[in-house]
Amino acid sequence: MRPKWDGGPAELVLVRHGESVGNLADVAAQDAGAEVLDLDARDADVELSDTGRDQARALRRWVDGLDDGSGPTVVVTSPYRRAADTAALALEGLDLTVGFDERLRERDLGQLDGLTGAGIRARHPEEAARRKKLGKFYYQPPSGESWADVALRVRSFLHDLRCGYDGERVWLFTHQAVIMSFRFALEGIDEAELLDLDRTVRIPNCSVTTFRRSGGLFELDGFAETDALDHHDVDVTHESPKGDRDDDVA
Length: 250
Fold this sequence. Notes:
CATH class: Alpha Beta
Helix content: 25-40%
CATH superfamily: Phosphoglycerate mutase-like
CATH topology: Rossmann fold
Strand content: 5-15%
Number of domains: 1
Structural class: alpha/beta
């Protein structure tokens, strides 16, 4: 069931963080068939790559070109460094206060963080079997989160947006699983539709997904759009279809 809105923001813009060194490590591990990512930082501290910073700066130039009255009025970011740094670069020099909300952070993979699908199957075969039985949406890695957990925090965040944000254009800097969960919550799609969407669309780094409120509902106006990068000749990057690290466990 789609939530009805009597008030709240006029627009929600979801920006995925720029390319990170974690994204590069993930691709390298997948290509090499490695079990572990070559990455020392904890997930919250992973930095943007050089390309990721270029992507965020391209978004800043794109924001300058928006029509008057269409830019952000409220900005909230995941506290994870790659998202927070994307927000800082993309909005540099604008008279905006950036808020932080832990509900926008990336899905926590718990004890499986840093492992590829091959690594999970080799080192935790019981978890590979459990995920296959439960399915991706409800499977919760040890000490981590399921997609259902992420959806719950997205619903909590949306509930708070109903209060005090009437007519605002709210920009959120966040992560792939969170953006997919906003679609799940706002559009009323079911588990199968969500997972099919996640299998077929890899949200590009620094892409923009836009919802606009109309008649009490938020309607999807643009999904994973890369206009900011395309217009400024900056590389468009995204994970391969197995970039979720546990995505190929089953």
